[in-house]
Amino acid sequence: DAGVIQSPRHEVTEMGQEVTLRCKPISGHDYLFWYRQTMMRGLELLIYFNNNVPIDDSGMPEDRFSAKMPNASFSTLKIQPSEPRDSAVYFCASSSGVVNNEQFFGPGTRLTVL
Amino acid sequence: GENVEQHPSTLSVQEGDSAVIKCTYSDSASNYFPWYKQELGKRPQLIIDIRSNVGEKKDQRIAVTLNKTAKHFSLHITETQPEDSAVYFCAATINNNDMRFGAGTRLTVKP
Fold first, then answer.
1. Is A100–B43 a contact, with Cβ atoms under 8 angstroms apart?
2. Contact state of A33 with B31 under an 8 Å Cβ cutoff
3. What is the pLDDT of residues B47-57, one digit of tens each?
4. 8 Å CB contact between B71 and B25
5. A70 touches chain B (CB under 8 A)
6. Which residue from A minimizes the CA distance to B38?
7. What is the CA radius of gyration of chain A?
8. Staple B36 to which of A112, B44, B52, B59, CB 3.0 to 4.6 Å?
9. Beta strand spans in B1-111 (E)
């Protein structure tokens, strides 16, 4: 298995633009997590899915952020409109079974909003 | 709300010395405590984890201890090497439904 796949690896956009980040979890994993990492706030859980259903989105900063998981092998995190303070590395991770298991992280997407 | 506190935020040791990183948590129902290592520019990766039915777990130079009464757990790295230099994150399950990460500890091992 190739592990968790994220695209793009780097994204530079201008304030106000829509940004879509993509994630393909490890095949067979039924949990998918989206994290944001910054120097100031560390690693923050934004939202996670179980069997494609959003379970906890309390970490989503505001209505500009949305996430979907249309099927077991694909998820998106969308920011619309983007702002400079959204600049961060966004990680997707997946795990199997329950929340209390090892999470496998993707390589991350480094987002820069100018 | 429930959270995980991690200390210290930075730690510098001489090669060969030991390093200890400590975390505390607030949810008494937490039962899973993983540790992740993140090298510069790379993704976090699990290095060791412990569940609440065990007080200590060891894997070569790495060990984790858990004190459920005091609600704290620690990562111990012995005989540190320069390749141990990284950011280390502790985490704990919160409300049996969520995983909360500590703020991270930047460990530097000086040759």
1. no
2. no
3. 999 988 889 99
4. yes
5. no
6. A105
7. 13
8. B44
9. 4-7, 10-14, 19-25, 32-38, 45-51, 56-59, 62-67, 72-77, 86-94, 98-101, 105-110
Whether residue B43 and residue A91 make contact (CB cut-off 8 A), yes or no, is yes
Q: Report the candidate in A35, A5, A12 with the shortest Cα–Cα distance to residue A87.
A: A12
- The residue whose two tokens read 């944001």 is A36
Buried b (16+ CB within 10 A) or exposed e, A30-40: ebbbbbbbeee
Facing residues of A90 across strands?
Answer: A36, A109
**Residue A69 near residue A54 (C-beta atoms within 8 A):** yes
Q: What is the pLDDT of residue B97?
A: 66
Kindly report the length of chain A.
114
β-strand partners of A64: none
Instruction: Tell me how far apart the alpha carbons of residues A103 and B9 are, in angstroms, rounded to a whole number.
Output: 23
What CA–CA distance (Å, rounded) separates B21 from B7? 6
Cβ contact B101:B89 at 8 Å:
yes
Q: Which residues 6+ apart lie within 8 Å of A50 measured at CB?
A: A30, A31
Q: How confident is the model at residue A67 (pLDDT cuts 50, 70, 90)?
A: very high
A51: nearest Cα among A30, A28, A75:
A30
Residue B3 to residue A42: CA distance in whole angstroms: 13
The low-confidence residues of chain B, meaning pLDDT below 50, are: none
Q: Give CA–CA dist B98/A96, Å, rounded.
A: 14
